[in-house]
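for the writeup, i need someone to sanity check this before i put it in the appendix. the sequnce is what the collaborator sent (i think, or maybe the updated version? ugh). structure was predicted straight from it, no edits. if anything looks off just tell me and ill rerun, i have time this weekend
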Amino acid sequence: MLAPLAERLRPQTLDDYIGQTHLVGEGSVLRRMIDSGNVSSFILWGPPGVGKTTLARIIANTTKSPFYTLSAVSAGVKDVREVIDRCKADAKSMFSTGRPILFIDEIHRFSKSQQDSLLGAVENGTVTLIGATTENPSFEVIRPLLSRAQVYTLKPLEAPQLQELLTRAVSTDAILKDSDVKIEETDALFRFSGGDARKLLNILDLLQQSTPLGQPMVINDKIVTERLQENPMAYDKQGEMHYDIISAFIKSVRGSDPDAAIYWLARMIEGGEDPEFIARRLAILAGEDIGLANPNALLLANATFDIIKKIGMPEGRIPLAECTIYLATSAKSNSAYLAIDTALAAVRHSGNQPVPLHIRNAPTSLMKEMGYGADYKYAHDYPGHFVKRQFLPDALTGSRFWNPADNPSEARMAELQRQRWS
């Protein structure tokens, strides 16, 4: 049976690898690591089809290391231990050419006990772990494993890189060369690909297979759109405009349109999207876009995230819908989001400003003698539990980071602050 185009064109060397130049370009971190032959454990985080598995295989081939792979979807603790035992045997073999590499696809799907079973082998150098995940490792990978593996972020391919991949496919693949490919337009092809190299090649496969024998294979926006609508499963489960749909969902909630928000939620659920991914986006929305206008939004979003983990799907669709409608209809404010970004910018610009003496911690007598905590006034000893004092560093006195938004909740907060500090 003929292998899919994506497999036929899988790069074998870094020179053939398209994209991720920030990681594998000349002088970049992974390129230096590979060239030196000293590869440490790391996790590749990025959307589907950007080259995580391919990169792991190239590293193994380049360093001539034994290569083992596990899928977190099907592997258990027993499988992990068996692979680690084989890696130990490889390391002791006189024919060993490098430390074995263990590649774990979708590592975010490993349970805590499965991830724990990796720790010893990674720490003592039995294996070099390369994990791949589409989910934020900070949420899905246990902290001890994160401390032993650097995280590298891969980006969706951009139009020039997709064009390079398209050109390579039609000029080097034997099947496509025989199909007399005529490229008239690429907007729809690149849009449906969504930065996913595998998806682009799968679409090319579909176009080639649906072109009648003896006729040229034409690529234009009309043909691509028609063929994909006729074959909705032509690309992966989370694939159809995955990033466009989550973007539409976020912007519908932010734009206070509950009907649109619930529609895009339904599209994600029907497409098999991970419900925890949706719940995380709702939590971010609650903090970033509702914020101080309705602090209860963050509580509900957190409760939604928690209950999704407990009950799963399909019942989880109900709390997801409840939270979506609540956030979409809630008052909106991004003042907290803007405040922390403004404060971070000030910190980076002004450096490590000293803490005013009167609010420093003074746990020892020497510190007290040096003036630490001197003249500190305990707010609760004063009327209204407030006393006017300086709390910012001297160099930043008078700076404003939080600017209240125009909503009843923050208007009350702003008025109270005005009365306190006037």
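The longest strand covers residues 128-133. The beta strands are 42-45, 67-71, 101-105, 128-133, 150-153, 181-183, 217-219.
thx in advance!!
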